[in-house]
Amino acid sequence: MELGSPASLISGVLIGSIGTGMFIYGKKQERPLTLLTGIALCVFPMFVASVLAMWLIAAGCVGGLWVATRNG
Q: Which domain holds residue 56?
């Protein structure tokens, strides 16, 4: 994660904390898709510098999880 922008740092922390919560929930409920989505949300902010891209990827991950659990 590039620490040049405060918005980037705050976004990374917020998305990572959401991912941590999803990881813990997925582990306790034994839901592998939620667990993997939580891991992805924890890891990807370290590699993306753009705040907009971070939030779009996070929305895609959470939206994909929502679609997969509603249709599956």
A: 6-71
The whole-angstrom separation of Cα 68 and Cα 42 is 20
Task: For helices 51-71 and 6-29, give the axis angle rounded to 10 degrees.
Answer: 20
CA atoms of 57 and 16, how far apart (whole Å):
12
pTM above 0.90, yes or no: no
SS3 content of the chain, % helix, strand, coil (to 5): 85, 0, 15
**pLDDT score of 2 more than 60:** no
Q: What is the tally of structural domains in the chain?
A: 1
Extract the tokens encoding 57.
Answer: 């990827």
CB 54 within 8 A of CB 48: yes
